[in-house]
Amino acid sequence: MIGLAIAVILFNFIAFRTNKRLTKNQILHLWTFTISLQGIVDLYIDCKYSAYWYFEKGVDWSSLPALTLLIPPINMMFLNWYPFGSPLLKHVTYYFYWVIFMLIYEMIAMLPEPWGYFNYGWWSLWHSALIDPFLLLFVLNYYKWICKIEKIN
């Protein structure tokens, strides 16, 4: 639980302190989207398939901060620092570094308690390495869609 608390405070501090791009409306959309998507995905991956879980298998109150306060600021940082208007190579390099960061953080989160809070069932780091780039792309496309909607209104 200590590791989760430190990560939540640190990631939120960095995300909000360094934000230069995202408006309050975009942040609200991003948080709502992230919490909704993560809740739905984790419901199946954790509860139905026992692939991975936070703290304990199944639904538990202790995993609530991980589901609501951990990933949204990471997505904020990803989008805030994204190299829009740069060459494709810079985009690919940016994705690569973010996926490496996410995998390293996932390994840290799997440390024994009280530092760690994340556990694998049949899931592995390779699954995350394959899925993470698509999740980042999904977040990026959602952000672009929100920006497009804002311009229409």
Tags for this model:
globular, 5 helices, two-stranded antiparallel sheet, 2 strands, mainly alpha, 153 residues
Instruction: Report the major sheet.
Output: 2 strands, antiparallel
Contiguous helical run count: 5
Strand order of the largest sheet: 1-2
Residues in β-strands, percent: under 5%
End-to-end separation: 43 Å
Average pLDDT over all residues:
94
- By oligomeric state, this entry counts as single chain
Provide the structure class: mainly alpha
Compressed to H and E, one letter per element, the order equals: HHEHHEH
Account of the 3D structure:
The protein is mainly α and 153 residues long. 71% of the residues lie in helices and 4% in strands. Strands 1-2 form a two-stranded antiparallel sheet. The chain starts with a helix and ends with a helix. The mean pLDDT is 94.
State the gist of this model:
With 153 residues, the protein is mainly alpha-helical.
Give me the secondary-structure topology.
Layout: H1 2-18, H2 24-48, E1 52-54, H3 64-80, H4 88-109, E2 118-120, H5 125-152
Antiparallel strand pairs: 1-2
Helix pairs in contact: 1-3, 2-3, 2-5, 4-5
